[in-house]
Specification:
Strand order of the largest sheet: 7-8-10-9-13-17-14-15
Protein name: Cytosol aminopeptidase
GO cellular component, one term: cytoplasm
Family: Belongs to the peptidase M17 family.
Helix content: 25-40%
EC number: 3.4.11.1, 3.4.11.10
CATH superfamily of the largest domain: Zn peptidases
CATH architecture of the largest domain: 3-Layer(aba) Sandwich
Radius of gyration: 24 Å
Shape: elongated
Distance between the termini: 36 Å
Number of domains: 2
Number of helices: 15
Structural class: alpha/beta
CATH topology of the largest domain: Aminopeptidase
Largest sheet: 8 strands, mixed
Strand content: 15-25%
CATH class of the largest domain: Alpha Beta
Enzyme class: hydrolase
Length: 467
């Protein structure tokens, strides 16, 4: 993975280009203070202080230029206000005039992300360095960027190279690097203990055998938390096969697993004082003579029976067995991530993960974290009034609602049946993908909700340096 730590450096007064920040309110007064040469250059360029617009300002000689860029509010910088500059400016060192970059440090790093593993000629990157005197902010923002880059890399990788075994390899690297204990249950060994993970994944080729991947880390006497991720490495829809257009992006259906692996690594790398249990339910929802069928009844790890109404509603099945396993260690907090429903995208579009929670305080902390990190969420109702849509004639519940309505809510209600009693629980129905690029947020795999969840965990458990 690219080392982002070189792109933010302590400001020790070294030579650097100046970045002037303006907004629509401050621009005219700022312009009055510029030299005639600079004003002429801006007028010739037709510069307007619109979002992300920037211009090069000439200095007294060819090497003394600076840059002006427009932000929404010079008094409250977003994470993304410098992200476009980080990709477009010439290589070199830069500092923001008269203030610290604050949250914009993250966007500076994110703007320099590339996924070029499959290109014969990789794009050049690196060499655009931002200076800050807030030295304590550097390590945390680099850690977050590494987590975001991990999600993007895993999701962007084609399914042929990112099957269940590759997810296991990613988990193994993380566990080994940070002293965690890795346990993997796979193939036929799943049939007794994790029957729904086994059923979903049994049709796949042997080298894509399903598995439950677990990492345990931290001291026994620390608060127990569980992170659970949907790792469907490719989703054909099973026998209820998706159309070609619906299958095109299904390499990203392991996006929930990517999020929890990145979040687990943040926990471990920063030494958060928790007892961590990370679980990834990994499988490929393939088609073969052994595929599970509509109308089958599966027995879950928890003992509840599930009638299959649609084989394309497989993510909740593998998550259910993983949630049941997580509950056996009596965690006080459970957070799951999943690319679970198209209904969430219809309701909220690609940018906003749907957040469900059984605890108002937890939901508030996550929403607050989303605002703080510019990683927005939208809370959806975990409304039990729709639970009857999961009823079935012959089993304890069905995996697909009996109505086309409230698809994201009924999926969350299905998961709720497997959440451990007494645990605070949050469920992210995330897209893990950006269909179009924005500054600092490239098209492709996306970490949506990761930084909000990390902010919540820090707020709950990191007491270092706090009164």
């Amino acid at each position: 993975m690219f080392d982002y730590s070189d792109l933010i450096q302590p400001d020790k007064g070294q030579d650097a280009r100046i970045i002037h920040l303006v907004d629509k309110t401050s621009y005219d007064d700022w312009l009055k203070g510029r030299s005639a040469r600079e004003r002429t250059a801006l007028a010739a360029a037709g510069y307007k202080p619109d979002g992300y617009a920037h211009a090069i300002l000439p200095g007294d000689d060819a090497e003394s230029w600076s840059v002006v860029t427009a932000v929404a509010n010079v008094d409250s910088l977003s994470a993304w206000c410098l992200a476009k500059l980080a990709r477009t400016l010439p290589e070199g060192r830069y500092r923001v005039e008269g203030r610290q970059p604050g949250k914009a440090l993250f966007g500076w790093l994110s703007g320099q992300y590339r996924f070029d593993a499959y290109r014969s000629k990789a794009d050049a990157r690196g060499g655009r360095v931002l200076l800050t005197t807030d030295v304590a902010a550097i390590a945390p923002v680099v850690a977050e960027m590494r987590g975001v880059a991990l999600v993007r890399d895993l999701v962007n990788t084609p399914a042929a190279d990112m099957g269940p075994a590759a997810l296991e390899a990613a988990a193994e690297r993380i566990a080994r690097a940070h002293g965690g204990t890795l346990t993997v249950t796979k193939g036929e060994a799943l049939e007794q203990g994790y029957p729904m993970i086994h059923a979903v994944g049994r049709a796949a080729a042997r080298h894509h055998a399903p598995r439950l991947i677990e990492i345990v880390w931290g001291k026994e006497d620390h608060p127990r938390i569980a992170l659970v991720g949907k790792g469907i490495a490719f989703d054909s829809g099973g026998l209820d096969i998706k159309p070609a257009a619906g299958m095109r992006l299904m390499k990203k259906d392991m996006g929930g697993a990517a999020h929890v692996l990145a979040l687990a690594e943040l926990v471990m790398a920063t030494g958060l004082p928790v007892r961590l249990h990370c679980l990834v339910a990994a499988a490929e929802n393939a088609i073969s003579a052994d595929a599970f069928r509509p109308g089958d009844v599966l027995r879950s790890r928890k003992g509840l029976t599930v009638e299959i109404g649609n084989t394309d509603a497989e993510g909740r099945l593998v998550l259910a067995d993983a949630l049941a396993k997580a509950g056996e260690d009596a965690p006080e907090l459970v957070v799951d991530f999943a690319t679970l429903t198209g209904a969430a995208r219809v309701a909220l579009g690609p940018d906003l993960p749907a957040l469900y929670a059984n605890d108002d305080a937890l939901a508030d902390e996550l929403l607050k974290g989303g605002v703080e990190r510019d990683d927005p969420l939208w809370r959806m109702p975990l409304w039990d009034g729709y639970a009857d849509l999961l009823e079935t004639d012959i089993a304890d519940l069905g995996n697909a609602g009996t109505s086309a309505f409230a698809g994201s809510i009924t999926a969350a209600l299905f998961l709720k049946r497997f959440v451990p009693e007494g645990a605070a629980w949050a469920h992210f129905d995330t897209f893990a993908w950006r269909p179009s690029a924005k500054p600092g947020r490239p098209k492709g795999g996306a970490a949506l909700g990761l930084r909000a969840a990390w902010a919540m965990l820090q707020g709950r458990y990191d007491r270092r340096g706090k009164a």
